[in-house]
Amino acid sequence: MKNIIIASTSTVHGSGTLEYILPELKLFFEDANEILFIPYARPGGITHDEYTAKVNDAFSKIGKSVKGIHEFENPKEALQNAKGIFTGGGNTFVLVNQLYKNDLIETVKAAVNNGTPYLGTSAGSNICGLTVNTTNDMPIVYPPSFKTFGFVPFNINPHYLDPDPSSTHMGETRETRIKEFHKFNTQPVVGLREGSWLEVKGNSIILKGELNARVFEYDKAPFEVETGTELNTLK
Amino acid sequence: MKNIIIASTSTVHGSGTLEYILPELKLFFEDANEILFIPYARPGGITHDEYTAKVNDAFSKIGKSVKGIHEFENPKEALQNAKGIFTGGGNTFVLVNQLYKNDLIETVKAAVNNGTPYLGTSAGSNICGLTVNTTNDMPIVYPPSFKTFGFVPFNINPHYLDPDPSSTHMGETRETRIKEFHKFNTQPVVGLREGSWLEVKGNSIILKGELNARVFEYDKAPFEVETGTELNTLK
Fold it and tell me: Which InterPro entries is this protein grouped with (chains A, B) (predicted)?
């Protein structure tokens, strides 16, 4: 049975890495003393080692140790043996590129579909959707495909930002961008505000956290859903 | 001799399409009564016809008519015969995808390198750089390549936005994103603020408009350049 947390962000303003969600993660990773970490998204370009050390610090607060997938000679075997997997944020294109380069897409999918608990934040959440066509990141590398895990039957837009009516900036708002996405694609998009996450258990997909999420469906007006809403009817 | 205007935006806040730059364009397109417009970036997903009509309205104020490239049976021939070319903003991925699909990259390059005046705004400016790896747009379609015209020996970041020190949003700033780009790429990036443009004449590349631009070079601290600065030494 799938067991996944798809979180908008690793860090909410004014608090440490994963701090807002650590109580939840203690239960989620109950049966995993060691978490297998996928550091490929390299936020700010930091190395895999640096990123893993940072995440290890955060997880040590709930008594878990963290090992980076780059430390294993055989990353496929590491995924197959993992008791819990975490993919952190950074640049979605860099992350996806590295997953394809190391031929790990299908291995992660198989492990997670078999029930290995998976936590994603930001870029690590983006890849839980059907494609990365709704990432906010800059396309600093060119991956061989935009297709990703498809753990949920829609796309994710993490760090969802509401339009700022006072802005004089002429760049597109997030809502405009997602509307443009729907001129070329039909799957729904769930905009997750910071501090929100989706809890996926088998076929159930429930919005968690304090805030509403914004749902964009093809050829419909976008709408708000409250925390606690079951989203498994989106498709 | 190349003759290009690479503008950050088509529209500055509180003014009509191209209004801020129309006096400049009247001179720039002096020898072109009709402008060939490339509407492929489809801002907000509008059709090629709708976009062309909007741009035609703007150019009519300086006595020019506009014809969309999609109106021609043979778009390559249209480019070869054009007296002036304008590529408007919208979604960079959609634009690049369509240029590749219609096999027009080399044809535009040849025309512009032969001296046909070319105006780009926003997405239409992004493609004047080496690649679109520094676009701000959402990757709503997957183009066959990120390589573009390379009219200047660096990348462009249009709509350049300074970091907002008061923001509580945890998404990356533009500067962070460009720094991440330089973990994987070495070419310089010129961040063009709204209302700024680059004037390319042969080998000269001069910053125009009222504002400074921000230049990011590989492995160096970013720096400001004043309007009027010659940028052809960047590489």
Answer: Class_I_gatase-like, Peptidase_S51
Which of B138, B146, B171 has its CB closest to that of A142?
A: B146
Supply the CATH classification number for the domain A3-161+188-215. Answer: 3.40.50.880
Burial of A73 (0-12, 13-18, 19+ CB in 10 A): exposed
Which residue of A14, A94, A171 is in closest CB contact with B136? A171
Contact A133 B138 (CB under 8 A): yes
Q: Measured between alpha carbons, how far is residue B97 from residues A184, A234, B36, B132, B155 in Å?
A: 12, 29, 19, 11, 18
Residues A106-142: tens digit of each pLDDT: 999 999 999 999 999 999 999 999 999 999 999 999 9
Q: In this predicted complex, what is the ipTM?
A: 0.92
| In the predicted structure, residue A35 carries a pLDDT above the cut 80 | yes
Cα of B73 to nearest chain A Cα, Å: 24
3-state secondary structure of B81: helix
* CATH architecture assigned to B3-160+190-210: 3-Layer(aba) Sandwich (3.40)
